[in-house]
Amino acid sequence: MSQRQTLCTLQHELIHARYRDVGCAGRNGVRNELRAQRETALALIDPMGYRTAEQMYEGDKWLMSVELGVTLQVLSDYQTLLREWCCQGHSLQQRYADASVNA
Ligand SMILES: [Zn+2]
Predict the structure, then answer these.
(1) 3-class DSSP state for residue 7?
(2) Which of 11, 15, 28, 62 shows a CA-CA span of 20 to 30 A to 78?
(3) Element (H, E) at 63
(4) Which DSSP category does 45 fall into?
């Protein structure tokens, strides 16, 4: 397992442990899994780092994931969150501004 895979797996499992998730069967299992995926992406990807990587590598997912130190799955989960954020009427510029204030 690569360092990126190890980091992402540990973060994911820590989130399950924090919520005391048990198993992945049924509707609660699916919901818990989605929550762990989303929170893993938010914990491991810095919005400003994402923006820099996206510009630097022109959206190439593999190169971006290597730059950000995450797996392709975690990058994909983060991009899904960004799409949902935009669909809710928020702008990415505001998200980046919020991230720089909180940094
Ligand atoms: Zn899981």
Answers:
(1) helix
(2) 28
(3) helix 61-68
(4) -
